[in-house]
Structure formats: C-alpha cells, structure tokens
C-alpha cells in the first residue's frame, strides 16, 4: 500500500510565528505543506498572497501544495511556479476551460490539482481524470479553517476512487476540511491518499505528536 500523506494547512498556523510553525512541519513526519490562497471573491475570506508564499518557500523543506481559492486562476499560474509551488490546485468551479488550465500548470513543471466544493459531483471529472494529478475534495465549504467535516464526503471519496481505478489513472485523492483523528482512518479506507489538517494540528498542544498519530492512523 502507498504511504498516506499528511499535509498540515498553514492557514491554521500562528502568522506571528510563521517561521516557528514552518519548522515544526519541517521537523515532523508530515510530507507536504498545504497552503491556502484566498481572494475574497471566490470565497468570502482573504488569506495571504505572493509575498507570504515567498517567505514560506524560503524556510519550507517539503513540497508546497498550493490550493487556489481564487477566480481566474490562469492569470497566476506562472507566478506560482516562479514562487516554488510544487502542486497547484485550482477549483473546478472557477475554471471555464479546465483542461487548458491543467495543461498550463503542467507546462510550468507543477503537479496539477482540481478542487471540488461540497456541492460538486465527482462525476463531472470523468472526462479529465487522467489529466489530473490530484483531486482535492473539500469536506467543508471553502474559506475558513476550523469547520465541521461534512459526512457525505466518504461517498464522494468512494465514487472518485472507483472512477480512478476504472480508468487506470494515477490521480491522488486529497481531503481538505475538518480532518481529525475521528475521520482519518475512514477516509483513507474509502480511498483518500492525502489528508490536509489545519486546526487539528496547529491548535494541538503537541503538534509533532499529533501529526505522527494522524499519520499512523491514516496508514493503519
Ligand atoms: O481549505 C481550507 C479552508 O478553505 C483549509 O485548508 C481547511 O479548512 C483546513 O482547515 P481545518 O483543518 O482547520 O478544517
């Protein structure tokens, strides 16, 4: 079995101590950094943009998994590549020409991801699944950390996994929102490969142990 990936979301980090929290992830058993970019238009919140990503990139020693919650993401593909993003995930709901967007991301040397909101049916990805490196299933409505996990997500994971296997694709399934030790195992059993965890990691007293336990659970 492929090792399951834990990606702590820096959205829940202490921004006044961002370098400290980045070092925590560097020293942990997590494999990726998850970075949420929000524009206040696609989602009702603004997180941070290019200058902060540049600062993160200087210290982060693991792949940067960048999740764009923005309208018109095509405008910024080259900028995110230049800033060191390893994976660039755009929202299905924000792309008119999704296939073209995926090609543009790959042309810049990044892995191409597609995020879907809780209301978006996974079947809509059927014709492009082989072009997608990562499908990010939002298990909360995007825009804010600390929300409760939407239980319907398990069904979406199972259906998506079936589609991936049927088409012999190598797409990874990533889950983002409300991930904790209460749902990690059921998610990976359903077919999830990557778990994003923000509040559960950064609000914990012992963050290194929390990441380690979550990873063990996901892989059990
Ligand atoms: O994309 C996001 C919000 O739109 C966050 O990555 C996600 O919500 C993770 O935070 P938490 O684990 O606290 O739910």
UniProtKB/TrEMBL annotation:
Active site: 36, 176
EC number, UniProt record: 5.1.3.1
PROSITE patterns per UniProt: RIBUL_P_3_EPIMER_1, RIBUL_P_3_EPIMER_2
Names of required cofactors: a divalent metal cation; Mn(2+); Co(2+); Fe(2+)
GO biological process: pentose catabolic process; pentose-phosphate shunt
GO cellular component labels: cytoplasm
Note describing how the cofactor binds: Binds 1 divalent metal cation per subunit.
Alphabetized Pfam families for the sequence: Ribul_P_3_epim
Pathway(s) where this gene product acts: Carbohydrate degradation
Catalytic activity: D-ribulose 5-phosphate = D-xylulose 5-phosphate
Top-level taxon: Bacteria
A molecular function GO annotation: D-ribulose-phosphate 3-epimerase activity
Annotated positions binding a divalent metal cation: 34, 36, 67, 176
Entries under SUPFAM superfamilies matching the protein: Ribulose-phoshate binding barrel (SSF51366)
Keyword field: Carbohydrate metabolism, Cobalt, Isomerase, Manganese, Metal-binding, Zinc
Binding site residues for substrate: 9, 67, 143-146, 176-178, 198-199
Class of the enzyme per the UniProt entry, highest EC level: isomerase
Family membership: Belongs to the ribulose-phosphate 3-epimerase family.
Its biological purpose: Catalyzes the reversible epimerization of D-ribulose 5-phosphate to D-xylulose 5-phosphate.
NCBIfam families in the cross-refs: PRK05581.1-4, rpe
Record HAMAP family: RPE (MF_02227)
Protein name: Ribulose-phosphate 3-epimerase
Species annotation: Zunongwangia atlantica 22II14-10F7
